[in-house]
Amino acid sequence: MPTPERVPPSVHDRGRPRTDGLVTIRLSTLSYLVLGIVAEHEICTPYRIKTELGRSIGSWWPQPHSQIYDETARLAEHGLLAVSAESGGRRRRRYSLTPDGRTHLTCWLDDPRTGDSEWRDPALAKLRLLDPRTRPADRVRMHRLAIERVEMYRDRTGRDHPPGAEPAGFGEVRRLAHELDDAAARFWESLARATADDERDAGRPASADPN
């Protein structure tokens, strides 16, 4: 008899009752990252979760610290994490994975579907609003924006974790992220050259004040 396909629990969130006893809760990518980091360390404080996210994928997928803390508490409220308090000192909350939490995490990892990718570079919003074809001053703004993004991407690509400090499973993540950063840097370098050429043809240096 074939083994029934395991469906990620979050798929059942849309008004249909569950029949497998699992808690119904809408989970995000951040939810699964929190569950996964707690699973890696067995017992984890919210501060450590925040630190692990920051030093692994935080540069490419930043999350507000308050959101990480709130999500950890929400997962505990719904029974996916168990919470206890330290007996002394600062009495920090410590979280561990419950069986339901492990099932949700395992089902998500087993499912190859992840949805559309996101690239939330704030510079894209500025690029969308700049129109050098009708507003010559925007060529200068676009050139300055491109130079800034080149510096940011080149700086980020050049960073390395000190020996022994690289989080588990981060090697492939870093390689992909660096390749994406390198591609983005090449795009912004090309845009910087193009806007500089346009300004030179117009007889105005690209570094001039656009106002």
Task: Walk me through this protein's architecture.
It is a single chain. Strands 1-2 form a two-stranded antiparallel sheet. The longest helix has 32 residues. Helix 1 crosses helix 4 and helix 6 packs antiparallel against helix 7. It is 52% helix and 5% strand. It is elongated. It has 2 domains: 102 residues, Orthogonal Bundle (Arc Repressor Mutant, subunit A); 80 residues. The N and C termini lie far apart (73 Å). It has 211 residues and is mostly helical.
Strand-helix topology:
Layout: H1 29-41, H2 46-56, H3 65-77, E1 81-85, E2 93-97, H4 99-110, H5 122-129, H6 137-157, H7 170-201
Pfam family, one: PadR
InterPro entries: Tscrpt_reg_PadR_N, WH-like_DNA-bd_sf, WH_DNA-bd_sf
Protein name: Transcription regulator PadR N-terminal domain-containing protein
Descriptive key words:
211 residues, 7 helices, mainly alpha, WH-like_DNA-bd_sf, two-stranded antiparallel ribbon, disordered N terminus, Tscrpt_reg_PadR_N, WH_DNA-bd_sf, Transcription regulator PadR N-terminal domain-containing protein, Arc Repressor Mutant, subunit A, 2 domains
